[in-house]
Specification:
The complex is a heterodimer of chains A (381) and B (283). By secondary structure, chain A is α/β, with parallel strands linked by helices. In chain A, 37% of the residues lie in helices and 20% in strands. In chain A, the strands form 3 sheets. Chain A has a 7-stranded mixed β-sheet, sandwiched between helices. Chain A has a 5-stranded mixed β-sheet with strand order 10-12-11-14-15, with helices on both faces. Chain B has helices at 5-13, 30-43, 63-66, 79-89, 101-107, 109-118, 163-170, 183-195, 221-231, 235-240, 243-246, 263-281, and strands at 51-55, 70-73, 94-100, 123-128, 131-132, 138-139, 174-179, 200-205, 232-234, 250-257. In chain B, helix 5 (101-107) packs across helix 6 (109-118) and helix 6 (109-118) packs across helix 7. Chain B has 283 residues and is of the alpha/beta class. Chain B is globular. Chain A binds chain B through residues 29, 31, 50-51, 53-56, 58, 60-62, 64-78, 80, 94-95, 98, 224-228, 230-236, 241, 243-244, and chain B through 18-19, 48-50, 52, 54, 64-65, 68-75, 78, 80-90, 92-93, 110-111, 114, 267, 270-271, 274-275, 278.
Amino acid sequence: MPRRKKRKEIFALGNEAVVEGALLAGCSFYGGYPITPSSEIMEIMANRLPKIENGVFIQLEDEIASMGAVIGASLAGRKALTATSGPGFSLKQENLGYAIMAETPLVLVNVMRGGPSTGLPTCPAQGDVQQARWGTHGDHPIIVLSASNVQECLDMTVTAFNMAEKYRTPVILLLDEVTAHTREKIEIPNEGEYEVFSRTVPSMPPEWYKPYEETVRGVPPMPPLGSGYRFHTTGLTHDRNGFPTQRPEEVTELMERIHRKIDQFFYDIQLVDEIQTEDAEAVVIAYGSVARSAELAVQQARENGVKAGLLKLKTLFPYPRRHQEKIMAKAKTIIVPEMNMGQMSREVKRVNMGRAAVRTINRIDGQIVTPSEILKVIMQG
Amino acid sequence: MNEFTGNEIIHQYLRHNKKFPHVLCAGCGHGIVLGTLIRSIHSLQIPKDDVVLVAGIGCSGRLAVYGDFNTVHTTHGRAMTFATGIKMANPKLNVIAIMGDGDALSIGGNHLIHAARRNIGVTALILNNNIYGMTGGQSSPATPEGSTTMTNPYGQLDSSFDTVELAKGAGANYVARGTVFHVKKLEKIMTDAIERPGFSVVEAITPCHTQYGRKNKYKTPVDMYKWMKKAAVSIERYNEMDEAARKDRLPIGVFVENDRKGYEEKYYAMQANFLSKNAREGK
């Protein structure tokens, strides 16, 4: 058996790990506009990309332009990344909708900060959870991922690119300031160690190609601009040829397909970590840095003889419903700690449907949720 | 003389079996602009696969769909941003951003001035018809002072934006203005703009009779073309005119002509430097 090459270890920020993950996944385009607390992603990209063959870094005039440029780059065949925080995320929403409609793969990192408005620029928050789900207008599917430590920032960025390419859709990676600005030792996987997906390109002659054709997976192949497949891309509801349509049957077909291509792969998309949930009666459901506090709280509760467990959400949307339903068989109490007024506990309650007692812990003061706060609620039963 | 030559050229470049009839009104000048654009591309011998038309929203935004190129119909005002991404990702492509006066000067004004400052190698084709046409005839930044529209029934109070002056001020590499009445001149300008490195701005004055002319003393579409014929004067002649004669005249022609390297050229040159340095050091 060949010996595995030792992984390179670095001491990195969460934001830095995002860059490492992106480059590992084959990202060769970054377009952005600086905003705290996401700026390091941009700064490190500015340093790295120009030194890589065909790597493009560009600082745009604003957040909207960044999103437009990233979509343009993706249409031209690049794996593209942009990063932002709260107010910038709001500005990107219109073009995010365009990317969903035109089925353009890209990764958008949002390092959340307190809000609304300019809010708390360098304080942790998780206030953009529902914005990530419903920020752009219209009915749309979306993939939203999250990370709770620095190593996960790297891993989930790779996953985000893979999902974007696999499903031809924008993927949002939601981080909070604690994760993004924590510095820890991480391992950088060697090349080839992680599976890296790239979009399917058409193999048929250009005259046969239909850019929005129905396929088994619901994901049509996507050629880069300039490769001989001339077609129309639009944010308008379009037919299989990419041309605008308002015919009810064509509108329905498109809308159903863009939903179905995500829905039918829930098993692949919905990622969670289950920690001591097999026999747990008190289950904490958490994501981001809060999940780390929760993990310690669960451990301490176990030491105190309470059957506690943690369901850590790595995918926030589509909401990992089947994972929650599995733990509901035993759970008497579900505890949802969040750095917001209860944006994810809505989802938890929706799936719970009154079966267990749902307790929420909400911090909105720009401070982290501590393990002892969570432990206290677990111990209350 | 073969009077069909022009049409034969155009037909090679249109999605005529897919996307026609078009949405433009009788008397609209947008089709003329599309025609000049296609003839320019043809005369430069650029293969269809190497052309990307990136359009914004509105009547001008719909032009992209008619051309058999790589076509991207974007969000309102953002054509320039998509075009920037495309050009940076693949500098071999000829990227042409088609925008209306609302797209380019109002909602996308910031993108226009920064594209000019950055000198990205994109041709910005601005179709100025002084109005928001498709949306129903509301005033745009290019609506002349005093004229009436749906959103200023008592007359436009703010003054009209001068695209050429804006582009000049922002540092565009090439700035020109033409009208759909002066087709040959417009075609020459367009060819020049596409061929040139760096950022080029072409403003094409085109009439919107349905939403603008009809409500502003131009009884028929022909009156709008007559206005164009009368008002337009070459920049060379305009410069010789005195202040009184310049009133109500519209200078057309080439205003700025440079050959500065495009941003993407400078970027990739910087990268090539890094890569050759790395190769030398054996990295």
